[in-house]
Write a structure and sequence with these properties.
Layout: H1 2-34, E1 37-40, H2 42-51, H3 54-85, H4 88-98, H5 106-113, H6 116-179, H7 185-219, E2 227-230, H8 245-255, H9 257-279, H10 285-348, H11 354-386
Parallel strand pairs: 1-2
């Protein structure tokens, strides 16, 4: 009996050991998930943002509702046609039986008979489907912008780390020269100030990076604890090819949501105004309001075409401006690199001051960061222009 008890105790101890091991492994797995490192490309980020978009779910739900509304509108059209085809005696009989006047709201019957509610559902479905396509593009643009924001912050950290290393090295050299009497105290102070400024700039860049990373993680519906590593770290410059602006404007007038909305509104307003002016006499407020609403809808169509053309032209000019700024910054960066190199040579030969070197290094760091910012801005403007025939003012 004692041997059996001893065996049971041994088995219990072994099982408890296994349980503790498995529990520790589970905790380890949870910690790994919490501190997971995610290697993310730009396309993967866009795909993830689209999949997690709540707005997309709402649009899909709206499309389903409009399809149901179309069936209801079709039923209402059939009922209105049947009622209007009845004789007055049958209508009077219905009034006596149901104590409800089937012609109580004659305008609604006219609207239903003329297909207003079916047309409304059809036009709204088209606009929602267009909105879905536009939302995909909007999400792509916003996600890429946030992705670029993290890249810019990473680049700023890289540049400012190099700037701090150069400042520390310059301070070391100046201190050596001060010790042997070939540098002044003012030069030492200038070098120390440069180190402090470089530290401040680096800390600021690190803060900007954390903020940018949080914004991107939030857009992707990911945990803020995830360590993010970006796969696409190199921004490239693809020159804008020759653009046929008139062709793009015409294409935009065919596909932009503003045009679709204006034309759909005009179609609906024509049916509505026809019903109201047929029922109400010209001296009544309802008749006059219907006429005015139709005029507004008619005027909104050419205005929508004009607004689209204006928006496309502005998008093109923004692209031209961004590309010109980037090319100018290329030259500025080359000059800043050469100036830093020459000032360092002059300083080593006693022909320039510490302040000259610090100023040149600061200008170079600013030019490097500025070049990267303009490269990202150009890519965003190019993306906007490449999709300007789809992306509208209603986004």
């Amino acid at each position: 009996m004692k041997r059996k008890i001893s065996l049971l105790l041994i088995i219990i101890l072994i099982l408890s050991t296994f349980i503790n091991v498995y529990a520790s492994e589970d905790v380890s797995d949870e910690e790994t998930l919490e501190n997971e490192t995610l290697l993310l490309s730009m396309d993967e980020a866009v795909e993830m943002a689209i999949e997690n978009s709540r707005e997309m779910w709402k649009i899909d739900d709206g499309i389903r509702q409009m399809r149901d509304a179309r069936r209801d509108g079709r039923d209402a059209k059939g009922m209105a046609e049947d009622l209007m085809a009845m004789s007055l005696d049958k209508i009077a009989g219905m009034r006596m039986i149901t104590e409800v006047d089937p012609l109580n709201n004659y305008v609604d019957l006219l609207l239903a008979k003329n297909g207003y509610y079916v047309t409304f559902a059809d036009t709204q479905t088209k606009q929602l489907e267009k909105s879905r396509d536009l939302l995909v593009k909007d999400i792509e643009i916003e996600t890429k912008s946030l992705y670029y924001g993290v890249l810019l912050a990473e680049k700023a950290i890289e540049v400012n780390e190099a700037k701090l290393n150069n400042a520390n090295e310059q301070l070391r050299v100046v201190n050596l020269k001060f010790d042997n009497g070939s540098a002044t105290k003012a030069e030492v102070l200038s070098a120390e100030m440069a180190v402090q400024q470089a530290k401040t700039d680096l800390d600021s860049a690190a803060d900007d990076y954390n903020i940018s990373k949080l914004n991107l993680l939030n857009k992707l519906e990911l945990s803020f604890d995830i360590e993010l590593l970006l796969r696409d770290t190199e921004l490239t410059y693809v020159p804008t090819e020759e653009v046929n602006l008139d062709e793009i404007i015409e294409k935009s007038k065919e596909e932009r949501p503003e045009i679709l909305a204006a034309l759909n509104n005009l179609e609906l307003q024509q049916i509505e105004s026809h019903a109201y002016t047929a029922y109400y006499t010209s001296n009544l407020r309802q008749h006059k309001a219907a006429v005015e609403k139709l005029k507004d809808a008619e005027l909104n169509v050419p205005q929508a075409y004009k607004d689209v053309e204006l928006d496309v032209r502005k998008s093109y000019l923004n692209l031209v401006k961004a590309e010109r700024s980037l090319l100018n910054m290329d030259k500025t960066l080359e000059i800043a690199k050469e100036a830093a190199r020459i000032n360092k040579l002059l300083y080593d030969n006693g022909m320039a001051t510490t302040l000259d070197v610090i100023s040149a290094e600061t200008s170079l760091a600013e030019a490097e960061i500025g070049h990267y910012q303009l490269l990202a801005a150009y890519n965003m403007n190019k993306l906007m222009f490449d999709n300007c025939h789809l992306i509208g003012l209603l986004q």
